[in-house]
Each structure stands twice: as C-alpha cells, then as structure tokens.
From TrEMBL:
Membrane-spanning intervals of the chain: none
Family: Belongs to the bacterial solute-binding protein 9 family.
GO molecular function: metal ion binding
Keyword Coiled coil: yes
UniProtKB keywords: Coiled coil, Signal, Transport
UniProt name for this protein: Zinc transport system substrate-binding protein
GO terms (BP aspect): metal ion transport
Entry-linked PANTHER family: HIGH-AFFINITY ZINC UPTAKE SYSTEM PROTEIN ZNUA, HIGH-AFFINITY ZINC UPTAKE SYSTEM PROTEIN ZNUA-RELATED
Length: 336
C-alpha cells in the first residue's frame, strides 16, 4: 500500500489492507443476481452477427465491454459496424455470454477483448486465434499491468486516459488489418480521439492539483487504482476489485474511521452496481454519495442511487468521464 508522507502516514499504514482487499479470480458465474436495469439491447450495429453482416455489409467487429466498444466506434467511424457484446444495463465485470456466443464471434470480422479481465474473453481469444477470417485484437497489448494497492496485476488500465491511447492505437491497427482500404482513416481517427483523451488527462491533473484532499472512498468494487499510479490519489474501498467481492464488518468499520480521520465528505459508488453499501457508509458517517463510472456498464436513465444523474445508453468513454467521473472527483476532493 502506498502511504503519504507526513501527518497522514500513520493512519494510512494502520489501514494498509483496506486500500486493497484481495480480488477474487474472475469466473464464468456471476453472483450479483438479476439486474433490474439489464436488457437484451446491445449498443451498435443492427443485431446481425454475420461476417460483413453489419449495416450496408460493412465489416462487423465485436467488443467485450463499453469502454473498448467506444474505442472501436471512435476509430471506425462509419466504416465498420462496432457491436458491444455486453447488453445495456449489464455490468461488464459480471456479464457472461450465453452458449453459442463464440460461434457468433467466429462469423464476425473482428473481436476486441481485454486480457485478464474475465476468463471467457481470454478463452474466446484463444479459440479464435486459429481462425484466419476473424481478426483478434487485444486492446491491452503493450500495456503493462501493475501491482496496485487493490490487487496484484491490476487489469483496469482503461481508467487511465494515457494508457487508453495505446489501446486506441491497438484498435486502429486491428481495424486496418480487417479493412486495409480504410487504414489511413483509422490512423487519423485514432490520433484525433487520442487528443481528446490527452485533454481529459490534463483536466484530471488540473483537478488533482487544486484539490484540498487526496483521498477517495469507494463503496463498491474498486476499479480505480490506476488513478493511484497516474494521479497519486489514495483510494480506499471495503470491497475488492470484483463486484462479486464482499465487505467484512471490520473493513467497513475501518473505512468509517478513515472517513472521520481525513474529514472526507463523500462516498463514491460504481453506477453499474447496487449502491446499498455506499449508502450505508454515507448514512453512518453523515456524508454524501456520488457516482463514479468504470465504464463497464451502459445505462439508459438513472442509476440505482443516481440522484439527478441521467445516463444515456450510447455514452462513450469521454462522456462517462466528463458527465460523471470528473465532476464527482472534483467535488469529493474539494477542488471546486
């Protein structure tokens, strides 16, 4: 666990384990139960699964979660039909494909996946590796995972707008392999989107630089430790790095004490998860809940405890940051 120099170091060392409750291995069975916001609707395309089966017979590319789907969409523009496999309302960490999905993938032109995010993605990539007609694109190729305060080999790289630029370039290279005639357009689109990501990073940095606090408390699963490495923020959660992890009473009590010690005024929560723990923490500590998005869930409407937040199911990466993450971080860190 990273600790601050100075007065806060003793408090942080006492609570070292809280910054990183060990995550569980990602399996095929989810434990969150039925999501009332889940639908059969998917973002992108016309629902067709065949090779060249997108609108106007464009190549079809499947992506394995909302953030990566948006990378494909931004780079592809109108040249490729990008389809997010995760239905609207489902959490990307907890969603698993139905039998036959790999067969659908074999009929597509491309498959963009996240290494070590969920076992079904790695298994699908392995099965498709020998398929000469489906290009397998590892979005995280060349990105080194690190041992974060939350887990060893933390795979949530897309929470870092700088690392995302490598992911976008990987997508552009893969799309160029699928559709060489438009390779130049993919390179140009990737460069343009990466500039948006760079501006997002700079705005994030500016918030941290003027902040009064350096600590964030998250009352749902902890997808945000790449902000610890990039922006030197201390992020605490009584939950691990998977939505399936559970918080112990002792961990919850430690977090409540930490909130009081640091004078933290807000508890953040993943918009794609039930927010009961975050609400309970806020009630016990007389703080306020604020939303965060790990860009693993698309929601059409208001999240479970979203307050005035109204999301749109086709929001992209930048939308999630500018509409949810940056405003909440600015408020929570007292950088307004």
């Amino acid at each position: 666990m990273k600790t601050n120099d100075g007065a806060g170091s003793d408090v942080l060392s006492r609570r070292a384990a809280l910054a990183g409750t060990a995550g569980v291995a990602f399996g095929l069975a989810g434990c969150l139960g039925e999501d009332p916001q889940a639908t059969d609707e998917r973002n992108g395309g016309d629902g067709g699964n065949g090779r060249g089966g997108g609108e106007d017979d464009r190549p079809t590319v499947f992506a394995t979660m909302p953030a990566v789907w948006d990378f494909v969409r931004q780079v592809a523009d109108d040249h490729i039909d990008a389809i997010d496999l995760v239905p609207v309302g489902e959490h990307g960490h907890d969603w698993n494909p139905e039998p036959g999905t790999v067969g659908d993938l074999e009929s597509a032109d491309g498959f963009v996946y996240l290494r070590d995010f969920s076992s079904w993605q790695d298994n699908a990539a392995d099965q498709l590796a020998d398929d000469d007609d489906t290009v397998v694109i590892e979005a995280s190729a060349g990105i080194d995972f690190f041992d974060s305060p939350a887990e060893d080999n933390d795979e949530h790289w897309w929470m870092d707008p700088i690392e995302c630029q490598t992911g976008v370039d990987n997508v552009a290279d893969g799309l160029a392999e699928i559709d060489p005639d438009n390779a130049e357009a993919y390179t140009e689109n990737a460069a343009e989107f990466n500039q948006e990501l760079q501006e997002l990073h700079e705005d994030f940095e500016a918030i941290v630089e003027r902040a009064e606090l350096n600590e964030l408390v998250v009352g749902t699963h902890d997808s945000f430790q790449w902000w610890n490495r990039r922006y030197d923020l201390d992020i605490y959660s009584p939950v691990g790095t998977s939505p399936d992890d559970a918080a112990s009473p002792g961990d919850v009590q430690e977090i409540e004490e930490l909130i009081q010690d640091f004078g933290i005024g807000h508890v953040l929560y993943d918009v794609g998860e039930p927010g009961q723990l975050a609400e309970s923490l806020a009630d016990e500590t007389e703080t306020t809940v604020l939303p965060l998005s790990p860009i693993e869930t698309q929601i059409d409407g208001t999240p479970p405890i979203g307050g005035d937040l109204v999301m749109e199911s086709d929001w992209g990466y930048v939308d999630h940051f500018r509409e949810i993450n940056l405003p909440s971080i600015e408020t929570a860190l007292r950088a307004e």
